Input
Amino acid sequence: MAKCVLVSGGAGFIGSHVTVELIQAGYDVIVADDMSNCDLTCFEGVKKITGREDLPFVKMNFCEEESVNALFNDHQIDAVIHFAAFKAVGESVAEPLKYYGNNLVSFMNVLQAARIKGSAVLFSSSATVYGEPDILPVTERSPRQSATSPYGNTKQICEDMLRDSVKAYDGLRGIALRYFNPIGAHPSALIGELPRGVPNNLVPFITQTAIGKRECLSIFGNDYPTPDGTCQRDYIDIVDLAKAHVCAVSRMLDGKMKEDYEIFNIGTGKPLSVLELVNAFQKVNGVRLNYRFAPRRSGDVTAIWADPSLANRELGWKAERSIEETLAAAWAWEQKLANK
Ligand code: UD1
Output
């Protein structure tokens, strides 16, 4: 019988791409989401891509302990992937308790249920835990630095909750994946990123500017100590990133873990500056982008990119898609949205 994976926050950007890859790898998937930051567009897209019109969907808030317990009682859940969280860095500074309340309580409920039911736990963490690194690229052994936002702090605390729980409770096991900068969209253009309001992240801002929804892209800072003065990041294709989850789930469920709690960097290992990304977008899509240089954005780190060799070796996973393919997919998705 196929193993069953619960995807909390499964209607969102990363969750929907992960759901597609899990189904295509033969897993049964239950998608759960409270729809607080998305609509059904991506869930419908997932059903189309996979041909699974009957894909189970549960509308629920993971902060409600009883609902979480009921879900785990009603289904045999072999693994849970936890995406259900708030993710806007700026908002988390303005409303820290909203972030601590939601992101920590929901994960707590997931961990409690997983402990009782023996489900494996995959937590979606972030490269934000490394702060401004002294040495690049960062490995999983690079020190975490104190978080610069409540959002980042919730990622660190959730990692610690998972680590400590695995240590204390027999049979509980888990993996934290530290994502670098996930971008792009599914090649079908049926699912992608759907930011509400003005996008905070670079690529949605670029595609919205190119389509005419925004007047001009501000490049935050061109006086950083980098080759072209703009920040460097490790932009990881969303489909590649999604595939890493399938590898991690199978590692947990097929008894391949070396420790009961493991951490993996999910990135390409290649730095790209904001300006390089903007130029690549213009070139591959044949569009001109209106941009200007603006002051630095507070809280931004100068440069960060992954050493993904542990994930390459242990998960048997590697980023495969080129930045050109990724930026073409992001643009195709934006155009599709505009034609809707
Ligand atoms: C942020 C979060 C990270 C989160 C990630 C994905 C922090 C410090 N950062 O990463 O935790 O996982 O989003 O949601 O917590 N830029 C512009 N103009 C724009 C937007 C961005 O120049 O309009 C630049 C930024 O200065 C940065 C780069 O583009 O250098 C990437 O920015 P962004 O997409 O927001 O991601 P991060 O800040 O790296």
Residues 87, 89, 126, 128, 149, 152, 181, 200-202, 205, 217-220, 231, 233, 274, 297, 299-300 surround uridine-diphosphate-N-acetylglucosamine (CB under 6 Å). The two ends are 39 Å apart (CA to CA). Residues 11 and 43 are 5 Å apart (CA to CA).
